[in-house]
Amino acid sequence: MASPDSPHLTKKLLSFFLSTLFLTIVNSEAHCRNFKSIISFGDSTADTGNLIGLSDPDDLPAAAFPPYGETFFHHPTGRFSNGRLIIDFIAEFLGLPFVPPFYGSQNANFEKGVNFAVGGATALEHSFLVERGIDLAFTNVSLGIQLQSFKDAMPSLCGSPSDCRNMIENALILMGEIGGNDYNYPLFLGKPTEEIRELVPLVVSTISSAITELISMGGKTFLVPGQFPLGCSTTYLQSYNTSNAEEYDSTGCLKWLNEFGKNQGDQLLVELKKLQKLYPHVNIIYADYYNILLRFIQEPAKYGFLSKPSPLPPCCGTRGSYSSLFG
């Protein structure tokens, strides 16, 4: 499979992705703004180095080692990718520098952005999940802890209360993706599907509460991603492999897991519309990660991904029937 950071793909992918990403705007009166910075919360899909900053130097996560970072930065940066993340492309699109990680950073410049996203983070509190027998976390950092870190750091990030409010008002606030690990961990443990479904409204409510708090601090523009199509994930295709062909769609993804991801996105979008009515002066943008990634999987060649006979196997790092045929 061609790398998404290959030069001949970047322009095509960036144009398609960002034009699609900003399509679902909850506030119909939203308009383009010149953002002065990006403030980011989330998990590994947005982590630009925070998990490494929080880790024991003698027990670093996989993202601290090759092949992570090999195609664009040419060395590991703490991103869980061989190249750039969605947040990196958004920053480039807005004419802003890559957003530096907050945790463990020394002499970082946060004037144009600050990132609190941590690989493995959950929306719900770690203690809440542990009480329900869900304890596989790589970190105990939740969305609430990230938000508290931001509040605690504000005096050093922006100075006076008025300066801080001005910073938040003129920032694009990226709320994730967050919540995926709240489902990943119980899925890895084989928890009943109905038990996992019960977490969805709790995750949605937690994201909504964080947005509400940030609005009270001056937040004006929020980009809120939904979930990915989990049923197309190699990890789950391997774990829930079945001979029952009716469990799969025409692409080879597990239908029940994709329906779960879509349902979470639908519930999140309903909540965001409620927030928009409560705060009409705020722009809330729903990022439809589900359908964007699904289009990549359904038509890989159209977007420059050359994969035969299926786009689902990864380049490396897995075994079994979904292991890569291409090294």
Features:
327 residues, globular, 12 helices, alpha/beta, six-stranded mixed beta sheet, 40% helix
Tally of strands: 6
Q: Main β-sheet, in a few words? A: 6 strands, mixed
Radius of gyration: 19 Å
Secondary-structure-derived class: alpha/beta
Mean pLDDT: 88
User: Please, how many helices?
Assistant: 12
| Overall outline | globular
Give the SSE string. HEEHHEHHHEHHHEHHEH
Strand portion, in percent? Answer: 5-15%
3D structure, described in words:
This protein is of the alpha/beta class and 327 residues long. The chain is built from twelve helices and six strands. It has helices at residues 7-21, 50-54, 86-93, 126-131, 143-158, 161-169, 180-188, 193-197, 200-216, 234-239, 255-278, 289-298, and strands at residues 24-25, 37-41, 113-115, 171-175, 221-225, 283-287. It has a six-stranded mixed sheet. The longest helix has 24 residues, at 255-278. The radius of gyration is 19 Å and the shape is globular. The N and C termini lie close together (10 Å).
In short:
With 327 residues, the protein is of the alpha/beta class. It has 12 helices and 6 strands. The protein has a 6-stranded mixed sheet.
